[in-house]
Design brief:
By secondary structure, this protein is of the alpha/beta class. It has a domain at 16-44 and 75-88 and 128-265: P-loop containing nucleotide triphosphate hydrolases (Rossmann fold, 3-Layer(aba) Sandwich). Helices cover 29% and strands 24% of the residues. The chain is built from 8 helices and 11 strands. The chain has a 6-stranded mixed beta sheet with strand order 7-8-9-4-10-11. It has a 5-stranded mixed beta sheet with strand order 1-3-2-5-6, with helices on one face. Helix 6 runs parallel beside helix 7. It starts with a strand and ends with a strand.
Length: 268
């Protein structure tokens, strides 16, 4: 079995990454956002043991991941790279509980998510994981505030509490003045910031990002990476990011390569 080794690449500092001062963001340090208080505590470790996954096309079985072993430390910023079809997004979806393994286990803290039934897995996913996608996945007929509030609709929070959380999340990504704007009225970078606010609004321990800068110009991409680095550094969010962009991968504290369903350290 192939076990990925730790990289010697240190986490980037604020001076290196140019990340905004998240501590100064509205609600983050002022005490007006109690739902974010737990973000200052360590996220749970993630451990994958002998994880395998294959897809079926008719009678054909197509292996994607083969006996993958991986550990993600609390509060780590990890980048996954590799050629198209190497299994990066599949691995991300397994960690996030979107897809299920064929073999092996995935522990997040004390929870083996591979043993949860569908209902328990959905509940775990809704409170533990925030999702950031390449194409934003915003609903066009909802404004920014409504898009960010959406994940909270199935929670016991009141409408006032949901809106306050959504406002705070949007303020943290610098969009206080765009809350009433619809996705079509926002730039690509602003849409991705809205998507990040939506990922944050339930205060998950883990953020999974699938090509978060893939549809952005270089300047907007840099701003999004600055924001993600700030969330990782000041709020302790564990971030696992799939990317093809070496510049994006440089922001991570560790880079792993996936090739033919197996992991290797990018700096070995």
């Amino acid at each position: 079995m192939n076990r990925a080794r730790e990289s010697s690449v240190p986490p980037r500092s604020a001076e290196q990454g140019g990340t905004p001062d998240m501590d100064a963001a509205p609600g983050a340090a002022s005490g007006t956002a109690p739902f974010l208080a737990q973000s200052r505590t360590a996220s749970p470790p993630i451990l994958l043991q002998s994880v395998s996954k294959a897809y079926r096309r008719g009678a054909q079985v197509v292996p994607v991941l083969t006996s993958v072993n991986m550990a993600v430390a609390p509060g780590e910023f990890l980048a996954l790279m590799g050629p198209s079809g190497s299994g990066k997004s599949t691995l991300l979806n397994l960690i996030a509980g979107i897809d299920r393994v064929d073999a092996g286990s995935i522990h997040v803290g004390e929870t083996d998510i591979t043993t949860l039934d569908d209902a328990d897995l959905a509940r775990w996913r809704s409170r533990s994981v925030g999702f950031i996608f390449q194409f934003y996945n915003l609903i066009p007929v909802l404004n920014a505030l409504e898009n960010v509030e959406l994940p909270l609709l199935l929670t016991p929070l009141s409408g006032r509490e949901r809106r306050e959380r959504a406002r705070t999340a949007l303020a943290m990504v610098g969009l206080s003045d765009r809350m009433d704007h619809y996705p079509g009225q926002l730039s690509g970078g602003q849409q991705q910031r809205t998507a990040i606010a939506r990922a944050l609004v339930a205060d998950p321990d883990i953020l999974v990002a699938d090509e978060p800068t893939g549809d952005l110009d270089r300047v907007s991409a840099g701003e999004i990476l600055d924001l993600m680095s700030g969330l990782n550094r000041t709020m302790g969010k564990t971030i696992i990011m799939v990317t093809h962009d070496p510049r994006a991968a440089e922001r991570a504290g560790r880079v792993l390569l996936l090739e033919k369903g197996e992991l290797a350290d990018a700096h070995a």
